[in-house]
Amino acid sequence: MLVSDKTSEQLLNDVGSGLRALTPTDEQHLSVWNDARQEYRRIVELRWALLEQAEGSIPPPIVVMVVMWLLLIFASFGYRAPRNTVVVISLLVAAALMSGTIYLILELDAPFSGPISVSPAPLQRALAEMTR
Prior knowledge:
By secondary structure, this protein is an all-alpha fold. It is built from five helices and no strands. It has helices at 3-21, 27-52, 60-80, 85-109, 121-131.
């Protein structure tokens, strides 16, 4: 667990403790208090969902199986196709598009690492607001 994870967990626990310590006095305050508790529960659930999804969930054997399946398909098309420029370029473009698609699927499976990643700026701003 990272230091920032411990900090955010402690801040969320402090918010939850603060909400539990409040005692609403009238109907309007009770409504606002219930809304705040509901939002707090939603934030905690989202935090756990983000922690669970931080790492990829696609098993490597499935990736290998899909790559081998595509290799077999392209090899069978290439074996039976006539040898001319249009066919070779078409197969190369199709193979490049398929490999790009597999790369994007694997890249987007782990949203918090790699060249295409989710920006941590909104969470850092929220954490900065919580620490004030």
